[in-house]
Amino acid sequence: MTAPLYLSGHLAPVAEEVDGHDLPVTGALPPELNGRYFRNGPNPSPGQDPGHWFTGHGMLHGIRLHAGRARWYRNRWVRTAALAGAPGRGPDGRPDLSAVTANTSVIRHGGRILALVENGLPYEVSDELDTRGAYDFDGRLTTAMTAHPKEDPVTGDLHFFGYSALAPFLTYHRATANGALVESREIPVGGPTMMHDFAITERHVVWLDLPVVFDRALLRKGMPYRWDDTYRARIGVMPQRGSAPVRWFEVDPGYVFHVGNAREDAEGRIILDAVRYNREAFVNSWAAMGAAGSPRAQNATGHAQLHQWTLDPRSGRVSEQPLDDRRVEFPTLNETLVGRPSRYRYAVHGDGLVKYDLHSGAGRCYDAGPGQAPGEAVFVPTEDGGAEDDGWLLTIVSDRAGRGSALVVLDATDLTRMASVDLPQRVPAGFHGNWLPDI
Ligand SMILES: [Fe+2]
């Protein structure tokens, strides 16, 4: 029997945890890049078929850059209770929030490095990727935590949420810059949906209440969510402070895994951009990411486009439009501008990356070469913080035939390749990473 897509080619898991030192570099690494690039992704245990790309155990890959050299690479499974064999539910039948895969992203906040997955608690890891254990903000976090929290670049607050198939379906949380969870608030929604991401602006939270719903009948098939034509697609705007309710806007049915950014304008309107799937794109991609996906499927995440919504709380009106027709995923930006006006987005596009200039509408591409699959491009600003795109893009590029991987560093201004670091083993294409500068 042919292996499903998520166990094949550049998505196939690796069997070993390895360490490599003083890695070969082609080109020149910027000497200012002193820190660690960590990336998370699913990596089922050898011989295991989790039934969906999203449900393999989390594995972190790390590359240490210092003074123009690539000092080390290492990869480690996130040693969760689930990896140790714990069942997903406690004795009371409710989900065990520590028995999760922690496979989606990795952030540093409040001095802790956290591996994240949206259906459970974060797992804290060391700066050498050793697992310290599930982290619940000193007992204050009693829901799951999204893998897409948003750190406000001015206050340092971490805004996030937890969603659940069981009530409460959605809970908003805010942690201070030093990592104290100081606010948790239930948000009423129409039902249990898969809510992968959200957005913030300077003063608001933006919710994506979209028609991909929990379906108990699918529980044994990997990811128990499916498109539902009867669920109304809505985007909600909620003030961060105070107790004002969410203002909801009905939008054209679509699904969003990943937000680009959001901002508010002088008239109080909220402008949101994100990579949007229409019904057909979602259904096809979702099938390709699950057990039905064959290795012949072209690209499990490549059927969505950058899209923009303008929400006007005064008039109650919403307008939306595609910003481009390229098929993209994994949008990123200069995160010092989260929630603020920002001009550039970076996204994975086919065998390369695209840089969008939202002011001019232009798109510039980086081609990684035939048969190459770049992952999410993390933007690292230069220390003196010049222009918005003054910095570098870091991405792990993997060969689609499974022959190997490299960490590629691009100049974010023009997408020229500055350096490529050969990694000592293949890195399965995964989800999200972050640059953790030395502090
Ligand atoms: Fe994601």
TrEMBL record:
Q: Which InterPro entries match?
A: Carotenoid_Oase
Obligatory cofactor(s) = Fe(2+)
For this chain's record, the cofactor binding note is: Binds 1 Fe(2+) ion per subunit.
What keywords appear on the UniProt entry?
Answer: Dioxygenase, Iron, Metal-binding, Oxidoreductase
Recite the lineage of the species: Bacteria, Bacillati, Actinomycetota, Actinomycetes, Kitasatosporales
Q: Which PANTHER family match?
A: BETA-CAROTENE DIOXYGENASE, CAROTENOID 9,10(9',10')-CLEAVAGE DIOXYGENASE 1
- Record-stated family: Belongs to the carotenoid oxygenase family.
Pfam families the UniProt entry points to: RPE65
Which class of enzymes does this protein belong to?
oxidoreductase
Organism from which the protein derives: Streptomyces humicola
Q: Does the keyword 4Fe-4S apply?
A: no
What protein am I looking at?
Dioxygenase
Q: What is its EC number?
A: 1.13.11.-
